[in-house]
């Protein structure tokens, strides 16, 4: 280490007990915001029996939160840089608590949909604020790496925990309880955040907020993510396809506007840097593999193995054990080895885990599937953690909110793309594996075959396992691509 490097290390202020306590407080809203993506999976039957929503209303009850959250991430991240990240965090916590209360006691489908939309707005305030505040709390790169590791692990765990928590609550309480659990955590955040967190703003703090750019970002992201998810669910249709095209065109207008602004909502110079842009791309690929394959694993546990929803949710937590061990080890190794090699290795481990699942058939024991899932999850989340930390470190502190928001918006887009791409691969394999004599509904989906003749159900389950193998091939190839990009683009990027 040179004398200059030593002096730079000494100039970095290391975080103490106060900052680590503040990080623990920040994990509360992050866990709940990520849980709310999946917390209604078990509650929908109870909600349907109580509020009697139509089919379209039921879909919006499930999807409204995620769509609004994804659409407003970039806007809220930029707003936090201007008005203050702590201020936006507290506003989001207050709104999240109020919207949770409104959702718990909603007396109509429209009221619940509206409350879920407000939860999405609040979540968009909270998520980029938590990651941006980590950038300002932890100046030391090694400490920041540990903090981002915890952030990524909590976010991933929240999505997995949502169904388990809702299933456990519904054993003893009514469906509104899945929203009321948010209230104590948000109250604690409102009390402790002003004490533990200092306010921070970006260089554009106090400047006029660009309402037009905010509208353009929302108008670009919402139709793209909605269209991709609808295409993944129902195949090609004019409406969702047109939505994607319109969203992309509006996105082009948004980019052109950002190039002309003195204080843009998204700093395109940062996106073009290899450290940030490369991390953004591999993060998108990671979420594509994670979300795209998770759909198949969930159906495999329930519809092929016949597990109850709660039982399937509990088994799906097993792979998280691999993440808990691998993510801290990868962060420690990245302090000694070029992180591009660690990330590339993590993605290759993940590719190996997905390849393990390619050979699964109806006779494969459950433990074999769980081991393969733990391997791919461990490698993938470890690499994602390093990508998030690298991107956050590349962003200047004054742009931390917008940088965090773009990362999270990229993750949402990656998840939608994964559902579309891997879903299409799985659907094609499933249809090809089904006998031509099977009913049309059974040849389209496994759900359409359940309840039919025993021979049709058995064939559908075998075809679905083949479809899951096809999706695993696609996910493995995505991980190989992410590994190559890591080594080519991110090598020697501090």
DSSP summary: helix tally? 21
Q: Helix/strand-derived class?
A: mainly alpha
| Helical content band | over 70%
Number of strands: 0
Provide the low-confidence segments as ranges. Answer: 1-10
End-to-end Cα distance, whole Å, is: 15 Å
The radius of gyration over CA amounts to 22 Å
Give a description of the structure.
With 494 residues, the chain is mostly helical. 80% of the residues lie in helices and 0% in strands. The protein has 21 helices and no strands. It has helices spanning 3-11, 17-35, 44-51, 55-83, 85-104, 109-137, 141-170, 177-180, 182-196, 211-234, 238-260, 268-272, 274-304, 309-315, 320-333, 339-358, 366-394, 400-433, 440-444, 446-449, 454-489. It is globular and about 65 Å long. The protein starts with a helix and ends in a 5-residue tail after the last helix.
Briefly summarize what is shown:
This protein is mainly α and 494 residues long. 80% of the residues lie in helices and 0% in strands.
Brief descriptors of the model:
mainly alpha; disordered N terminus; globular; 0% strand; single chain
